[in-house]
Amino acid sequence: LDNKCDRFQENFDSYTEINGTVERVFATEALYTRIATGEEWIDAILNEYELLGVDPSERIDPTVDVCSIGLCPTEVQWCQTDPNCSVSPFQEPPATVKGSVIGGFTVAGAILLVAILLAVHLYLVNAQAHRYRARFARRIAETIELRASVRNLTPDALAKEFQRIDEGVTKDGKISKEELWEFVSSGKAGEMERKDFDAMFAAIDLDHNGEVDFVEFCAFLGKCDVEYRAARRRSSVVSLQKSRSVVASRLSEAVSQRKFTIEDPSAALTPTAEGEEGKEAET
C-alpha cells in the first residue's frame, strides 16, 4: 500500500462448484503493517488481545519463551513431520554381501585384467621379435653358404657378412640404420614392415647410439639361430625342388628329341655320341 512496503494487503478467495454454479465459499482479507521494534510488536499483540476480547487465562505473554511454558513441539512430535529425523518408509534391504567381499572381488578383477593385458603385450612383443628375427635370418641365409647352425659361423664369415651390409652408405665399420634397412629390404626375404624394422634395430643397437658395431651384430645374429636353421631348411627344400624340376625338364626335352630305353634313362642327361646305336632302341 506504500512505496516502502511498510503496509500491504492480502486477499484470499476460495471457489467451488455447487449445482452447476461456481460460488465463493471462503474469503479472507488481511492488512499487514510493518513494526519497527520489538516493543511495538509486543504492544500490538496486547492491543489485539484487548480488541478481540481474549480471556486473560488464554492469553500468552509475548515476552515469555513459549518453549519454557510447554508450547513448543517435542522431538517426537517434530520428527513426525520432519524427514531429517524420521525413518523413511522407503528403505533399501540389507546387503547380503559384505563390502570387504565386494572389495576383494574388485581387486582380484583388476589384478586379473592387468595380468591379461600384460600377457597380451608380451605375446605381441614376442611375435614381433620372431617376425623380424625370421626375416633377418632369411636375408642372411641368402648370402652365407652354411648348412649348419649360426653358431658354427667362423669369425671370417661373420666379418665378411658385416662388411657386405656396411657397403651400403657410409662404409665406416659400423652399420647405420639406413644401411640395415637397405639390406633387409633387398633380396628374396620379402618386405619388412617399418615398425618391425624399428623394433629390430632397437634390439640390435644395444648401446642405443644409432649404429650397430660388429659385436652387436654377432650378438643379435646368435639370437637368430633357430630362425636361421629354419630358413636354411626352407632354402634347401626350395633348391631340391628346383633341381628336380630342372632334371624333369631336361628328361622331357631329351625324350621329345630322341628315343631311349627304359633301362638307360641317364642318356637323357648325357646324350651319346653318334654311332653308338647300341644304346638306342625302338620304344
How would you summarize this macromolecular structure in one to three sentences?
The chain has 283 residues and is mostly helical. The chain has helices spanning 38-52, 75-79, 99-141, 155-166, 177-185, 194-204, 214-223, 225-257; strands spanning 7-18, 21-33, 175-176, 211-212.
Description:
The chain is mostly helical and 283 residues long. It contains 8 helices and 4 strands; from the N terminus they run ββααααβααβαα. A hairpin with a 2-residue loop joins strand 1 and strand 2. The C terminus is likely disordered.
Question: Keyphrases for this structure?
Answer:
283 residues, mainly alpha, two-stranded antiparallel sheet, two-stranded antiparallel ribbon, 4 strands, 49% helix, 10% strand, rod-shaped, disordered C terminus
Major beta-sheet overview: 2 strands, antiparallel
User: Quick check: average pLDDT?
Assistant: 75
Q: Could you give the count of β-strands? A: 4
Elements, N to C (H/E) = EEHHHHEHHEHH
Q: Approximately how much helix is present in the residues?
A: 40-55%
Shape: rod-shaped
Distance between the termini: 139 Å
**Residue runs with pLDDT of under 50 for 5 or more positions:** 267-283
Give me the secondary-structure topology.
Elements: E1 7-18, E2 21-33, H1 38-52, H2 75-79, H3 99-141, H4 155-166, E3 175-176, H5 177-185, H6 194-204, E4 211-212, H7 214-223, H8 225-257
Antiparallel strand pairs: 1-2, 3-4
